[in-house]
Amino acid sequence: MYARQRRQPVIKANPKFYVFIGIIAAAVIAIVYFVTNVNTATVEMGEIRFEEDVAVVVVRDEQVITAENYGRANYLVAEGERVEADTPVADVYKWAYNDKVMNELTEKQKTIEQYQENERQDNDDQQLVEIQNSITAKAAEIRGLINNNSGDLLAAERELQGLMDQKREYLKETVEVDAKLEEYYDEEAQLQERVDGWREVRVAPQAGVVSYYFDGAEQVLNANNLQQITIADVDAILQGTTSPEETVEQTQEPLFRLVNNFKWYLMVRKDEPMIEYANETEYEVGFANYLDRQYSGTVVGHIAEDTDYIYVIEILEDIGELLNTRRTDAKLGTKFEGLKVPSEALRESDGVTGVDVLVDGKKTFVPVIVKVVSEGSAIVEPLDVTSGLTTGSEVAL
Description:
6-stranded antiparallel beta barrel, 3-stranded antiparallel beta sheet
């Protein structure tokens, strides 16, 4: 007889077991996918244009030349004229100055001139005729400038005075001196000495452009004072509320400004830090009221107070028509060039901005300087040139 075999029991798995295994498998697959399949972008060389219209405050490299309280000033240089060092700019007359004495001097010089002309031996002196004709023509020109309220009146008056001095010297050299003329010369010399005693000639301490326009902010908003300028100083100008207070001795009065026309600054006000205004960034600068001229400027620093900022742009070109401008509207533009990445590739690690560069499937965090972000892209520069972030690199998104 054969022995009876026992049948092995059949074990059936619970359907919930397969669901659990499926979930585990899906999770593993998802993890593997996300680890091995990272969205990336290829780094390329590119450029991004940045432009904006802003209100700016102009800060000049200038000196305010003052004089002790004076009674009268005779300006020798026209507004906006460039002069060299030691050029006479103004004759300043003290408070004791007396117009009566100056008028007596002028009348005495006229008397001398009439006497000399009457005593001349040669009534057909062609040189004297030419000088007189020039004086007559220049006087007519000045009358026209006054009537039309245009032109360089000061320069014309200076030229007329030069012609009159030329005539006076010519007559003195060609007319023989008699007792009466000698008496007139002595009286003229005495009057001239009194006038010269009241007069002080003020010269330009160095080369620059002369201006007689003052807005009261020359001492505070000055290139020599850049480190001390506050946001309140700039806001006062931008808002048109008041000029920053400056301290000038009461006994001194401003006489003229001497401006370094080849070095000046623009103050750009911002309510937040702007990476586009990093130091050494170069800008093209145009002004709303001076459309025929464009300047080049460089960001040289900034002033920060809490969350408020002022960025300083230095311009080393002739200031031209902006000589007396304190506030104006400007259009600033620049082009940032370099490594271009999607802006979503940027991230922070321990307070440092950078991108994750993929090498052999592994991510390496590379710190960068962000120059500009616009419309989903950024121009960046690696802090370490050997970091591996270069054209053709892959960065994680």
